[in-house]
Amino acid sequence: MSAALASIKSLVVDMDGVLWRGGKPLAGVADFFRFLSEREIPYLLATNNAARSADYYVGRLSEMGITMSRERILTSADATARWLTHELPRGARVYVVGESGLTDSLVDAGFQVVEGNAAAVVVGLDRTLTYEKLKRAALEIRYNGARFIATNGDFTYPAEEGLVPGAGSMVAAIQTASSATPTIIGKPHRAMFDLALEILKTPREQTAMLGDRLDTDIEGARAAGLTTILVLTGVSTREEAEAAKVKPDMIYSDLNELREHWQTDR
Predict the structure, then answer these.
(1) Helices (H), 96-187
(2) Residue 50 backbone phi and psi in degrees, to 5
(3) Which of 129, 73, 78, 141 shows the shortest CA–CA distance to 106?
(4) pLDDT at 265 over 80
(5) Over 90: is that where the pLDDT of 84 sits?
(6) Rg of the Cα trace of the chain?
(7) Closest Cα partner for 48 from 211, 163, 197?
C-alpha cells in the first residue's frame, strides 16, 4: 500500500463525480463508506454544489442504501452562510442568484433574502437564471456597493450528458457586468478547506482530499496542505493529471480501486 494512504487519518470527500455522476450512482460507493466505518476514519462530504441542501444529500445517499448524518455534509451554500456570519451583522440584507439550497442556508444563518438594497450579492448555481436576475445583481454591486460573494467558481459540473454550466458561469457573467471581483468561498479557495478541517478536528497533515477535479479538489487541497487523491470518474482524466502543474499525490480509476489499495494496510 502507498505510504501516503497509510498516513491518512481523515478524509474530505467530494460528491459530484466521486459518488455519482448526474443522476447515476458510481461503482463502489457503499463498500467505500463501509470501509471507512470499519477503519474508524472520520470523513466529511464537501461539495461545491450550492443548489442543494445537506438534507437533500442525506436523502440521496439513503436511496443508495447509505445512512448519512447531516453533520457529515458541507455544501458550499452552508460554508458561504457560515463565512458571512463573520462578515455581516445578523439580519443583513442579501440578494441571491441561486436556488433553494443557498437561500435556505442564508435564512437559517439569520440573513434576510431581499430583492434590492442588499449588503451583499451571493451567487451560486441557478438553473432558473434570467436576464433580470443578472441585471439586478450587477446593479446592486456596481451602484449600491453590495459585496460580491460566490459560493464557488466551477464553470462546469459533470452531468450524465456531459459537462454542463456551473455556478462559475453565472459568477463570470455578473463579474463582467459589474466590473467587480467576487470573494469565492468554495473549492479551490482556502475557506472551504479550513472549515472542513475545523469540523473534522483532525490535523491538516493527516487529512486527504478525495475528488475528481484537478482545478478545484486537487489544487485547492494541495494549497491548503492536504494530501490529494484523484479518482477518474468525474471531470479530470489521467492524461490531464499527469500533465498538470499541480499533480495529485495518488490517482485511482474509481472508489473500488482506492479501497482495494487501502485495504492492504494491515
Answers:
(1) 100-108, 131-144, 167-178
(2) -100, 0
(3) 78
(4) no
(5) yes
(6) 18
(7) 211
How far, CA to CA in Å, does 201 sit from each of 12, 25, 162, 190, 229? 12, 29, 36, 16, 20
| Residue 246 contacts residue 219 (beta carbons within 8 Å) | yes
Backbone angles phi, psi at 241, to 5 degrees: -65, -40
Model confidence at 23: pLDDT above 90: no
Grid coordinates given for 260: 482495494
pLDDT of residue 1: 44
12 φ, ψ (degrees, to nearest 5): -105, 125
The predicted-structure confidence for 183-236, as pLDDT tens digits, reads as follows 999 999 999 999 999 999 999 999 999 999 999 999 999 999 999 999 999 999
The C-alpha atoms of residue 54 and residue 179 are separated, in whole angstroms, by 33
With vertex at residue 65, the alpha carbon angle to CA 63 and CA 18, rounded to the nearest 5 degrees, is: 80
CA 235 – CA 158 distance, rounded (Å):
6
Give the mean model confidence (pLDDT) for residues 110-135.
98
Cell of 190: 482556502
Helices 190-200 and 76-84 pack at an angle, to 10 degrees, of 90
CA separation for the pair 65, 209 (Å, rounded): 24
Which class for 241: exposed (0-12), middle (13-18), buried (19 or more C-beta within 10 A)?
middle
Which residue numbers are catalytic? 14, 16
H helix count then E strand count, the chain: 11, 15
